[in-house]
């Protein structure tokens, strides 16, 4: 609690802020409150809240276009004030101060107020580079600790659908291709405020043409992935070894056999990288038949 006093041979004028700092969730609503006192003969003529002190701007927030339809002033007594801000945005992170005027004085706007930090949710994946069969943990993070909910319960979603029976951390052990998809989280009680999605990519190898593969025919293997950001490089493997006929780290997703041979009968898979993480496709069996 911050208390600022002004005494000059008469009863004090003061402003008391309930919180020095507040951390709130992006998209939610926050209440910033204070109490103030003044001599009984000082009739209050105006109360207001401000921000943007670093620029010297002291316009009432209720008149600020950035806060249009998002701010309200509330009071329970004649000596308290609460600033309510709805639909919080990250740019709302700043210091807020209260001011009141009487017929004799103006007070409250020159000292520190309440600093608001607005945080979004982020999904953190461990390890950052995922290999099939590993233990993968997804954690929901905020930049600062939520003032009204310092130990929140999190809800997890896959492809926008709520997952059941999950703890605050989502554990995939072992992770498989069936776990591929887009994951997001939300704080319980604020289910409509999702984090950005974190994608576990689904990487597959397909063969064209489909059907029987005959020796001497043209066959194309294609490595596809829904990685976000998009894949930057591909690496092909044949029976567990790097396939030397393909440049390792190729930027093209295809391997073309212009005249496939019976010796090309093997298992093939690809690794992809988007510069952030890597992923491996399941193996694809190629059986080349003789004419």
TrEMBL record:
Protein name in UniProt: B-cell receptor CD22
Subunit structure: Predominantly monomer of isoform CD22-beta. Also found as heterodimer of isoform CD22-beta and a shorter isoform. Interacts with PTPN6/SHP-1, LYN, SYK, PIK3R1/PIK3R2 and PLCG1 upon phosphorylation. Interacts with GRB2, INPP5D and SHC1 upon phosphorylation. May form a complex with INPP5D/SHIP, GRB2 and SHC1.
Protein task: Most highly expressed siglec (sialic acid-binding immunoglobulin-like lectin) on B-cells that plays a role in various aspects of B-cell biology including differentiation, antigen presentation, and trafficking to bone marrow. Binds to alpha 2,6-linked sialic acid residues of surface molecules such as CD22 itself, CD45 and IgM in a cis configuration. Can also bind to ligands on other cells as an adhesion molecule in a trans configuration.
Listed Gene3D superfamilies: Immunoglobulins
Pfam families noted in UniProt: Ig_2, Ig_CD22
Domain Ig-like: start-end pairs: 11-96, 114-201, 202-283
PANTHER family named among the record's database cross-references: B-CELL RECEPTOR CD22-RELATED, VASCULAR CELL ADHESION MOLECULE 1
Species this protein is from: Oncorhynchus kisutch (Coho salmon)
């Amino acid at each position: 609690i911050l208390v600022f006093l002004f005494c000059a041979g008469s009863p004090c004028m003061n402003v008391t802020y309930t919180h020095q700092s507040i951390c709130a969730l992006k998209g939610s609503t926050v209440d910033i409150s204070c109490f103030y006192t003044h001599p009984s003969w000082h009739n209050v003529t105006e109360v207001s809240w401000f921000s943007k002190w670093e620029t010297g701007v002291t316009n009432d927030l209720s008149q600020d276009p950035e806060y249009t339809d998002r701010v309200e002033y509330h009071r329970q007594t004649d000596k308290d004030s609460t600033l309510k801000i709805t639909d919080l945005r990250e740019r709302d992170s700043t210091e807020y101060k209260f001011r009141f005027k009487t017929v004799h004085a103006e007070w409250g706007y020159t000292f520190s107020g309440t600093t608001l930090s607005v945080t979004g949710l982020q999904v953190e994946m461990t390890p950052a580079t995922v290999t099939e069969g590993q233990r993968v943990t997804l954690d929901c993070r905020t930049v600062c600790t939520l003032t009204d909910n310092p130990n929140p319960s999190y809800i997890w979603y896959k492809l926008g659908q709520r997952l059941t029976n999950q703890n605050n951390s989502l554990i995939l052990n072992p992770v498989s291709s069936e776990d591929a998809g887009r994951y997001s989280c939300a704080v319980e009680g604020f289910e409509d405020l999702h984090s950005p999605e974190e994608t576990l990519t689904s990487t597959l190898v397909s063969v064209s043409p489909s059907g029987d593969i005959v020796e001497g025919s043209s066959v194309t293997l294609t490595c596809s992935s829904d990685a976000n950001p998009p894949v930057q490089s591909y690496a092909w493997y044949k029976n567990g070894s790097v396939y030397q006929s393909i440049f390792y780290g190729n930027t093209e997703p295809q391997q073309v056999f212009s005249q496939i041979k019976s010796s090309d009968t093997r298992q093939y898979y690809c690794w992809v990288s988007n510069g952030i993480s890597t992923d491996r496709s399941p193996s694809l069996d190629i059986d080349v038949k003789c004419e």
